[in-house]
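Researcher: Next sequence.
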Amino acid sequence: MTFDPLEFCDLCFQRNKTILCETYKNTFIKISSIHFSQQAKLDKLLNKLQVMPRMIDRRWTCTLDVSMRKEFLDSLWGIGVSVHTLDDHAKILTRLYKPEIRQLGEPCTVELPNMDSWDEYDPKTRIWSSLKVNNKNEKFTTKSTLGNVLKCSSIEGTSYYRINKNEDSISLIPMEKRAAFNIMCTIAEPITAHWKGDTSGQHVFIDIKELGIIPDEIFAFLKRLGKGDKKIADNLYFETEDMDIVRTALSSIKINLEKSTETIDFASSDKSCSPIPISNIEKERLDVLLDIIREMGGTITTADTHIQVSGKRGSVKVSFTDEEKSMQDGNDIMIAISALEVPSRFSEVLSTIKKKIGLSDIPLESSLASHWPILNDSDLQYVVQSAISWYGSNPLLAGKIIGENEKLDRIKEWNKKIKEGKIRSTLDTITLGKIIKRSESN
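Model: Next structure:
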C-alpha cells in the first residue's frame, strides 16, 4: 500500500488541528502554522536534542531516536506545541471499531450490471471468493447473501457494492472502497493470527496474509507504527515494545494475536537501506524517467545501484528503494519504486531533480503522459484520459500520447470492447475514437 500517512486522520482533527503529527513512529511533521516565538522554542529544543529537521515531500519533518521520544513529547507540552501521536491515533481507532459481529442475511439471487469479474467477501476466511455470473435473457445474475459486499473488477478499475433488500426487491448499492471495507470488518468472523519474534527479542513480525482483508485505516496505522524498511518480505515489522498497541488495534477488528513457535534470524535478513539494483527496475518505467531527464537537458551516467544526473547547477545521485516514501538528503535522492507507477508522484520526483540541478523547464504533465507506458489497467486509464483531456486544445499532442505500435493497439482493442458492450466506460469514447482515427490516418 502506498498512502498519505495523514489520509486517515480526518476524524482525529475534527475539533482542532494540532501543530505536529506523528506520521511514522518517531517521525513528526508540521501540519499547522506556528507562531514565530513557538518556532524559536521548538528549534531550541531540537538543537538541544541534536536533531536537524528537514523538508520531506515539501513538509517540515524531524525524526528522533527512540531514546529521545519521551523527552521530546514532554518538552512539547512545556512550550505549548500540540502534537497528535500514534498512541492518540490508536485510541481513536478503537472507538471507531467494535469487536462485534453482524450476521449476514439469507442466500439470494442478485442481478448484476455486467459480465465483468465479480467476487464476494468471505467473512470466515476474510478474503475475496470468485462468483459465477449467469447470463440468461440478456440479464446477468449471481448467487450470494443479503448484506454481503461484492467487488467488480474491470478495465475501468474496481467497484464495490453491498447487497440490499427493499421490501421484495434485491439490488446492489454502490459503495466507496473505504465504506465497503469497514462493513466487511463488521461481518467478519474472529480469527487468530500469529507473530514471530527474532533471536534478539527486540523485533516482531506478522505475516500480512494471516490478517486477510482489513480496513485501510487499520492497515495504514500498522504501516505507520511499524518499521519502514522491508526486512522480511510480506511481513509487518514492529519493535517488541509496540506489541500491546498492535494487539489492541487488531483486536478491535476481531483478530487475536498468538505467539508462533518459530523464530526469525533477524540479523541474516537485515538489508535495510540497500538500494535496488538498476537492472531490477522495470525497464519501461525507468526509461520514462531517463527520457524525460534527457529532454530537460540532463546528462545521465548509469552505475549498478544508482544513476548520476548532471545539470547546470551540479549533479545528484539517484537511487531506488522499496521504502514507502521518496527522500532527499543533500545531493542524494532516494526514489520509492512505487512512485514510478503513479503519475503524480513521478512528476514530483522529476520536478525535484529539475530544481535541484537546474534542468530546463518543460511541460512535465504532457511529457509524462506522452512517455507513459501501458503495463496495466491503471496505466491504460491514465493514458486514455490524458489524451482525451488534451484533444480539444492540442490534437497533435493527444495523438502523441496514445502513441503507436503496441501502445496504440492496446488502446484500440480496449475501445473495440467498449463498442461491443463487453466492458463499460465512463470516459469520452467518442473523442477517443476521433483521436484513434486521426492517428491511423497519419
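Model: DSSP finds 14 helices and 22 strands in the chain. The chain has five domains: 20-84, 107-187, 191-269, 278-370, 374-441.
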